[in-house]
Amino acid sequence: xxxxxxxxxxxxxxxxxxxxxxxxxxxxxxxxxxxxxxxxxxxxxxxxxxxxxxxxxxxxxxxxxxxxxxxxxxxxxxxxxxxxxxxxxxxxxxxx
Length: 96
Hints:
- This protein is an alpha+beta fold.
- It has helices spanning about 5-15, 20-25, 35-40, and strands at about 45-50, 55-65, 70-80, 90-95.
- The protein has a single domain, classed as Beta-lactamase Inhibitory Protein, Chain:B, domain 1 (2-Layer Sandwich), CATH 3.30.1450.
- Strands 1-2-3-4 form a four-stranded antiparallel sheet, with helices on one face.
- A hairpin with a 2-residue loop joins strand 2 (about 55-65) and strand 3.
């Protein structure tokens, strides 16, 4: 999934209550190799090396939703954690 696809998925989550779909998609990456995620979603916005030799990969999407003259800005952070073998072990999301 490319960054534009992430944006569309996030907007759908806000407008149509499809957040469980986002959770399901993120959960489906647990047990898979980090390189597979990068191949599908593109490079992460940030990547942090952890003390246990794993990594936290952070995908950040920002935007705004307008209704008439009223707008709401948002930032979505989707985080995938890997072990020392680059296998995704967990995920979390904030603002999504």
